[in-house]
Amino acid sequence: MQAPPLFRSDEIRAAYHLALLEWPYSGHVAWQRHRGPNGEIDAAVAFYSLSQPPIAFVIGDAAGVGECLAEAELPECAYQAFFPEHGGVLSGFYHIPRPVAMTRMVLGRDDFGNAAASDGGREIVLGARHADALEELYSHEAGLRADRYQFEQGRYVGTFADGKLVAAAGTHFVSRSGSFAMIGNVFTHPGYRRQGLARQVVTGLLRRTFERADRVCLNVRYANRAAVNLYESMGFSAHCTYCEGLALLAPALASAEHNAASGDWRNF
Q1: Phi-psi region at 235: left, alpha or beta (left = phi > 0; alpha = psi -120 to 50)
Q2: CA geometry: angle 238, 222, 217, nearest 5 deg
Q3: Alpha carbon distance 187, 183 (integer Å)
Q4: Is residue 7 exposed (0-12), middle (13-18) or buried (19+ Cβ within 10 Å)?
Q5: How far is CA 194 from CA 77, 197, 199, 255, in A?
Q6: Residue 165 DSSP class
């Protein structure tokens, strides 16, 4: 599948969809696509199965997304990543108990200034021998886990203190065609916070990532102003807001009340 104009019109908004077109991610994706009156793809849902539960990445015309879901073999449990306008149609298929509003931020190589290069310096690239240490660190945050493929590619960095891994950051996807990367899984051990470790590991990861990408994206909780302020101080800017959350399959019986309440997804 080549990238349709829907993805190219806003590559940051469609970052995950673009990355999933490329190997090795493409081998783990089931696509559902909808074409509008002009024959162009106007909606798409990508079910990414390398993660468990699978992640459903949603984009495009809301009615078209509904058509995609109606035709798909839906997993009973999936992690949904979608934009506010899709909340109403998704509620006809899935129950999402605790959706979280997220901000997608972006940083270009030219905006990754010399000042940032002076931060950090003590982080190291994490490899196979650090797998247990990373798993232990991430055990302090429910639902946080490393992307095993990216970890094995050396796309995680971390810093140690007192003989243990106390902060780490990693990569979700790298798009060669779009020359961008998605980073995340930034976490600092609760006992080592307010020491600048998050800035240190993110800066170290950015240095390495910008060797092969022109832009870097990351996602942060909309309500986490401290994290947003940190990333803004590093040069990131907010690009768009989306929603994510664990979803359980429900009968596709979207009532008028459900549809009328779809605006709630916009109230961040």
Answers
A1: left
A2: 40
A3: 12
A4: buried
A5: 36, 8, 10, 47
A6: E
Tokens of 192: 């080592």
CATH 1.10.3470 given to domain 5-103+242-266: no
User: Could you give the 3-state DSSP secondary structure of residue 251?
Assistant: coil
* Domains in the chain: boundaries: 5-103+242-266, 113-209
Q: pLDDT of the chain along its 268 residues, tens only?
A: 789 999 999 999 999 999 999 998 999 999 999 999 999 999 999 999 988 899 999 999 999 999 999 999 999 999 999 999 999 999 999 999 999 999 999 999 999 975 455 555 688 999 999 999 999 999 999 778 888 888 888 899 999 999 999 999 999 998 988 899 999 999 999 999 999 999 999 999 999 999 999 999 999 999 999 999 999 999 999 999 999 999 999 864 343 334 434 444 443 3
pTM score: 0.88
Distance of CA 100 to the CA centre of its chain: 12
CATH label, 113-209, candidates 3.30.160.20, 3.40.50.2000, 1.10.10.10, 3.40.630.30: 3.40.630.30
CB 52 within 8 A of CB 98: no
